[in-house]
Input
Amino acid sequence: MIANVVESSGLLVTHVVDEPVAAATALNMRNGAVVDVGGGTTGLSVLRNGKVLFSADEPTGGTHMTLVRPVVEKMACLTSDWLTAYNVRNIHVVGGASSFSEFPAVEPLLVTTLGIAMQAAP
Output
């Protein structure tokens, strides 16, 4: 875990947040799902009333999308499978790799980064 690496350098970790939850913070989203398509991973968090019900991360991201179409299909199947158990109406796709044409409507690219900064605020 990243906290172990940081703390081994002598720094104190006070808070860890996954990227989809950080993005939800920036979007001021309390209910729904955030799919964060990064360069190397795809993460998803489902929130209800501001609480995380489910979170997952898969080492398949945007850099893999240009390889073959089945990678895009794999990402879609993962997301669909992750959401099966939840009645989610609002799904936001964010992340640096979300600008691929396979995503018809996405949030701004820096939503996750902004959310991480907002989580660090006192």
Remarks:
- Strands lie at 32-37, 42-48, 51-58, 91-94.
- Residues 36 and 94 are 5 Å apart (CA to CA).
- Helices lie at 2-8, 19-26, 62-65, 69-83, 111-120.
